[in-house]
Automatic annotation (TrEMBL):
<feature type="binding site">
    <location>
        <position position="48"/>
    </location>
    <ligand>
        <name>ITP</name>
    </ligand>
</feature>
<feature type="binding site">
    <location>
        <begin position="8"/>
        <end position="13"/>
    </location>
    <ligand>
        <name>ITP</name>
    </ligand>
</feature>
<comment type="function">
    <text>Pyrophosphatase that hydrolyzes the non-canonical purine nucleotides inosine triphosphate (ITP), deoxyinosine triphosphate (dITP) as well as 2'-deoxy-N-6-hydroxylaminopurine triphosphate (dHAPTP) and xanthosine 5'-triphosphate (XTP) to their respective monophosphate derivatives. The enzyme does not distinguish between the deoxy- and ribose forms. Probably excludes non-canonical purines from RNA and DNA precursor pools, thus preventing their incorporation into RNA and DNA and avoiding chromosomal lesions.</text>
</comment>
<comment type="similarity">
    <text>Belongs to the HAM1 NTPase family.</text>
</comment>
<dbReference type="InterPro" id="IPR002637">
    <property type="entry name" value="RdgB/HAM1"/>
</dbReference>
<feature type="binding site">
    <location>
        <position position="161"/>
    </location>
    <ligand>
        <name>ITP</name>
    </ligand>
</feature>
<feature type="binding site">
    <location>
        <position position="64"/>
    </location>
    <ligand>
        <name>Mg(2+)</name>
    </ligand>
</feature>
<feature type="binding site">
    <location>
        <position position="36"/>
    </location>
    <ligand>
        <name>Mg(2+)</name>
    </ligand>
</feature>
<dbReference type="GO" id="GO:0005634">
    <property type="term" value="C:nucleus"/>
</dbReference>
<dbReference type="GO" id="GO:0036220">
    <property type="term" value="F:ITP diphosphatase activity"/>
</dbReference>
<dbReference type="GO" id="GO:0035870">
    <property type="term" value="F:dITP diphosphatase activity"/>
</dbReference>
<feature type="binding site">
    <location>
        <begin position="64"/>
        <end position="65"/>
    </location>
    <ligand>
        <name>ITP</name>
    </ligand>
</feature>
<keyword id="KW-0460">Magnesium</keyword>
<keyword id="KW-0539">Nucleus</keyword>
<dbReference type="InterPro" id="IPR027502">
    <property type="entry name" value="ITPase"/>
</dbReference>
<dbReference type="GO" id="GO:0000166">
    <property type="term" value="F:nucleotide binding"/>
</dbReference>
<feature type="binding site">
    <location>
        <begin position="166"/>
        <end position="167"/>
    </location>
    <ligand>
        <name>ITP</name>
    </ligand>
</feature>
Amino acid sequence: MLNLVFVTGNRHKVSEVKAILGDTVDLQAVALDLPEIQGTLEEITLEKCRRAAEMTGGPVLVEDSALEMHALNGLPGPYVKAFVDTVGNKGLINLLVPHENKTAEAVCTLGYSSGPGAEPIIFQGKLVGQIVPARGVSSFGWEPIFEFDGETLAEMSREKKFGLSHRYKAVVKFRKWLEFQ
């Protein structure tokens, strides 16, 4: 069984990833202060993964989420956390007021490295939905404003969300890849 460090301080992400991976890995969560470079979601995730592998000295998994609003050419993208911290979900909604198109993609990018010096591998999951006025309570910043199939991610049962979310799709790709290693 692979011993794997999942670099996050978010216990809800740990719970979700552990539920999806099951007993395929021995997952240990570690919160590291990793600097985030400016760039694409993929570039940010690759750099975080490289640095995490160097810091831990072993196999690591990192995760980065983005919210890409179609009317805003993909903004806020990988910087969604900074947007939520600055303007909140109401501010994100207000960015779309002048636009008819409220479509957005939730994107989860996982980076895996087998250890220091090993080039990370990327696994990505996407979920297309709509930006709506906030509904529901969630531990993940923008989930109350992201609607899929009539419910926001914050309104969905844990089981339903775990079975269709952007994070679920990325982690399942990683799990399938691990099965062939």
